[in-house]
Amino acid sequence: MLHPLGLIVVIGRSWLGGLLLARHAFRRKPGERLLAGAGVGMAAFVGLANLLGRLWPAESAFWGAGLLVLPGGLAGVAPGG
């Protein structure tokens, strides 16, 4: 089980990564970007946790998924991404 502070870090990184992905993948009004980013980030987190959960123990899969969503969002922001 994730520590409460770790849970905040994982959710924050997932939300921020999703926000970056949604901002560059979809044309949304500024007021809609936060909610779209949270949805995209959570979907990416769940998908990655599912994939990593087949290879790693559950806690490691959750940490890994939470840590990988933000770099994915940053890769979408990079020039040429």
Key phrases:
single chain; 81 residues; mainly alpha; 3 helices
3D architecture notes:
The structure is a single chain. This protein is mainly alpha-helical and 81 residues long. It has helices at 4-25, 30-53, 58-77.
What characteristic shape results from the CA principal axes? Answer: globular
| SSE arrangement, N to C | HHH
Uncertain spans: none
> Number of helix segments?
3
Our estimate of the beta-strand percent is under 5%
For the record, give the distance between the C-alpha atoms at the N and C termini, rounded to a whole number: 34 Å
Report helical residue fraction: over 70%
Radius of gyration: 13 Å
Q: Major beta sheet, specifics?
A: none
Structural class: mainly alpha
How would you state the average pLDDT, rounded? 87
How many distinct beta strands?
A: 0
